[in-house]
Amino acid sequence: MQNYYYSGQGSLYAAERDPTTGKAKGFVRVGNVPELTMDIEVTKFEHKESESGNRLVDLTLTKEKKGKFKFKLESLTLENLAMGLYGEAATVAGATVAVENVDIFTLPAGKRFALAHPDVTGVVVENAAETVTYVLNTDYSLDAKNGMITPIAGGAIAIAAAASDIVLHVAYTYAAYTNMEAFTSAVSPQRWLRFEGLNTVDGTRVIIDMYKAQFDPLTNYGLIVEDIASIDMSGDLLADSLVLSGSQFFRQRNIGA
Predict the structure, then answer these.
(1) SS3 (DSSP) at 169
(2) CB-based burial of residue 31 (10 Å sphere; 0-12 exposed, 13-18 middle, 19+ buried)?
(3) DSSP label at 174?
(4) Measuring CA to CA, how many Å separate 188 from each of 18, 55, 73, 159, 213?
(5) What's the pLDDT band for 162 if we cut at 50, 70, 90?
(6) What is the pLDDT of residues 174-196, one digit of tens each?
(7) Residue 69 CB: number of other CB atoms within 10 A?
(8) Is residue 95 within 8 Å of residue 174, measured between CB atoms?
(9) What is the chain's Cα-based Rg?
(10) 7: nearest Cα among 201, 257, 254
(11) Coil vs helix vs strand at 78
């Protein structure tokens, strides 16, 4: 038999599964994946005879079959993060806020206070009675991209010694942005994973379909890093009862160059 040496690269795709048919509802490439592995595990029951005095194993029964997957992902889109954080990514349309209450708590000066939205323009800051309009860079500074207001020491935004906070009325317009809320789903997400690989040894192709991949929470989400950030994604390969022939876990197909 001729040796088949393998050194792989390729692309990983994910698709939501139709809950009724189990079919993939359209694959989306997850981005650059420098590492991808699968593990197949079995749990065995071992029976030992009790006649010879040696307690020899004379029977093994396979009690459980399961699979695991793991990959490192460098494309940190909000959609990818949502898979590993049991969340949902969405686009927030830009709009105008007529009045937003912003609580300014006891200074010292230098505290920053967040608006409900980032990337703001046309900001107007007033007192709660809307009788005083505060002056940018005199009474407060503005980090428009991050949506942050900072009262300036000596400016007109002041808190009496006995007061715990004051309320500002802020009006502004914000641009559209993408948003991801983590752990909004009570169950871990399931995806059909498809690997379309290239054997760089001989140019042949490999296709692996993992029908029912259930994700664990992501790990290694590095927010401050020296190199390219990545996350580690892993989970279980579940048996798909909707697959009526062949393996219910995964299949691999090799294609000529």
Answers:
(1) strand
(2) middle
(3) E
(4) 16, 43, 18, 47, 10
(5) very low
(6) 999 999 999 998 888 899 999 99
(7) 23
(8) yes
(9) 28
(10) 201
(11) helix
